[in-house]
Structures are given as C-alpha cells and as structure tokens.
Design goal:
This protein is about 65% helix and about 10% strand. The mean pLDDT is about 80. The protein has 2 domains: about 110 residues, no CATH class; about 180 residues, Heat Shock Protein 90 (2-Layer Sandwich), CATH 3.30.565. It is rod-shaped and about 115 Å long. The strands form 2 sheets. A 5-stranded mixed sheet has the order 2-4-5-7-6, with helices on one face. Helix 1 runs antiparallel to helix 2. The protein is built from 8 helices and 7 strands, in the order H-H-H-H-H-E-H-E-E-H-E-E-H-E-E. It is α+β, with helices and mostly antiparallel strands and about 350 residues long.
Length: about 350
C-alpha cells in the first residue's frame, strides 16, 4: 500500500452518499414516516451526507495512514502477533475517538437540534462506524495480502527461472570442451591412419561446430533442427568408420515440432561410439525413433576390449538438463544386449 490516489478520493465521495441516499429511497419508495415532509427529508439528506463524508474521509484516510506506517515500521513478516494486536488497538482507538469528536461537534450544531443525543445515540453510531471500519480494513488488508502473494509468486518464478538458466548455462558450457575433446581424439586417430580422411574430417567438423556455436545460448531446439544437425555429425563419424557405423531414423511427423535440449542426440550417439567397438566385424547400429512424445535412441552393445577414458559428462549432463526443463523422467538402461536412452520431447508454451 502506497500513497493515496484519486480512486481513494472518489471512493470516499461515493461511499459518503450511500447512507443518506438509502434514507431518501426509503422515504420516496415506501413512505418512511420518520420525516414530517419532503423538506425535512431533503434537509436530513444534506446533513446525513455531510456527516457521512466527514466520518468516512476521516476514518478511511486516517486508518489507511495507520496501516501505511505499520507496514513501514512493523511489517507482517515475522511480526504477525504484534502486528495484529497493535493494528487493532490503533485503528479502533482512532476510529472511536474520531467518531466521538465528530458526533459531539454535530450534536452541538443546529443540524442536530431535534435529535436526541444520549449515551445510546453515541454508542449505536460508534458501534456502527467501528463495524464498517472493521469490514473495510479487512478488505484493504485482504487486497494487500493478495497483491503481495501475487508479487511473491512472480518474484519466486523469476528467481527460479534465473537459477534454472544459470544452471543450464553451466551445463551447456561443459558441452563445448566435451565436444572438442571427443572430436580432437577422433582427428588425432585419423591423422595417424589416413591424412586424406583427416582433412575431410576437419572440413566437416567446421560445419558441425558452427551449429554448436549457433545453439550455445538456447535452452531447447526443435527436434527437426537437431536431426538436421545430426546428419552432419553422422557424416563425420562415417569418415572415420565407413559402413561399420549406421544410424537409422524413424520418427513420426508430429514430434518434429517438439523440443529437445541442444546437442542431446550428439551426446547419446557419442556415448554409443565411445563405449562400443565399431568395425566391419562388429558394426554399430544406432536406431532413433519415437514412442509417442518420447524419443528413444537405441544401439547394440559390443564393448571395446581396451579401457575407455570417460569424462562421465554425457548422460549425466542430459539428465540434469532435463531435470531443469521438465518433470518428465529420462531413462538410460541396458535391455537384451542393447543400450536404450529414452528422453521426453518438450512442448513449449507460447
């Protein structure tokens, strides 16, 4: 709650007319016998409106000022008990005192010369005023709490997103050196065996790495763009392994518009190549297909004889990125001499 606005002023003016207007409607519609005639009814309408305006404006702006000051000096957070006690004490003390003073002022004027101003008169008016004050203050605090709740949700969501993006950036930063490390190992191997293929590999590698740079700031990319990149990446592996390495893709049209973390397929295929023998005697076949809105990457298993140096970043990196992007689980397991990786395809909200 901040400073008073034009809406607050208009609210006070409009509310001030309500009690007296109700009295006039009763007089004209049902013939209220409380007034001796129309002139007296209109006179009471003027007096009632003036009284209502003085009381309403005094209580509304005064009580809101108390709430403003309490929000500065004694906010609700960590001070609930003290805040309730002090707010009730201050608001109702102020409300009672203001109404008593206004009633005393009006009772001494000619406006109330025909009104019986005994103890019951003061008690009933102050009780009614305090009841209205309680209702209005409850509504004001309710609106304040609702707005604070919405603001806290927005802030929490913003912080959650910023934290998620920070973690994703950290995970993506691992992929660049990971990709370079694997590719340079392949290049080093080719240089020893076939310099012509090594040169071809360098040329294709430049095209592949261009994609890596293009998606380095993206949280997700479409499956269609990832598969297009995969064609270039597979051609790199073909330079190295020839017909000993096969990739088969069978995906329905709908999943093509869904999303996947960038370089996810690259990591899965790299994982298959790294841990398995790839030769004409033991061909490595990678199958990529969809199960509904999930993507499955499956390869046959023929473990290498030599020990494989692993950074352990690939599958762990994928799992962590998915944890940040969706509640849907990932699956990595061996089934009947095949390794299967199943990851969800993400449908992004517009």
């Amino acid at each position: 709650m901040g400073k008073f606005t034009l809406k607050d002023i208009w609210a006070v003016v409009i509310i001030s007319f309500v009690p007296a207007t109700i009295g006039m409607l009763r007089y004209f519609l049902v013939g209220d016998g409380h007034y001796s005639g129309e002139d007296e009814a209109w006179a009471n309408f003027g007096v009632g409106t003036l009284y209502s305006f003085v009381i309403t404006s005094s209580l509304y702006f005064g009580c809101l000022s108390i709430l403003h000051k309490l929000n500065e000096k004694l906010p609700w957070k960590d001070n609930v008990g003290k805040r309730i006690a002090l707010e009730v004490l201050l608001v109702f003390s102020y409300s009672t005192l203001v109404q008593l003073l206004v009633l005393l002022l009006f009772s001494k004027s000619i406006l109330y010369e025909n009104v019986r101003t005994d103890v019951g008169f003061y008690f009933e008016n102050i009780l009614f005023g305090n009841t209205i004050t309680l209702i209005v203050m409850t509504m004001v605090e309710g609106v304040y709490f609702f707005r604070s709740w919405k603001e806290s949700l927005v802030l929490a969501e913003k912080m959650k997103r910023e934290n998620m993006e920070s973690q994703l950036n950290s995970l993506r930063s691992q992929l660049d050196p990971h990709f370079l490390f694997n590719s340079l190992n392949v290049l080093a191997s080719l240089i020893k065996k076939d310099t012509a293929k090594a040169e071809e590999f360098v040329e294709d590698f430049a095209n592949v790495y261009r994609y890596v740079l293009d998606v380095k700031d993206e949280m997700v990319v479409t499956l269609s763009s990832e598969l297009k990149f995969l064609e270039s990446y597979v051609s790199l592996q073909k330079i190295r392994f020839g017909d000993a390495f096969q990739v088969r893709v069978n995906i329905n049209p709908r999943p093509m518009i869904l999303f996947i973390p960038p370089l996810c397929l690259h990591e899965l295929i790299t994982n298959a190549v790294k841990h398995n023998e790839v030769s004409l005697e033991n061909k490595l076949t990678v199958e990529i297909f969809n199960k509904g809105d999930n993507l499955v990457v499956r390869n046959n298993i023929k473990k290498r004889n030599e020990e494989v140096t692993s950074t352990a970043l690939g599958l762990e990196n994928i799992a962590k990125r998915y944890t940040l992007l969706t509640d849907k689980p990932t699956r990595f397991e061996v089934i009947e001499n095949h390794f299967e990786a199943e990851v969800p395809l993400i449908e992004m909200e517009e």
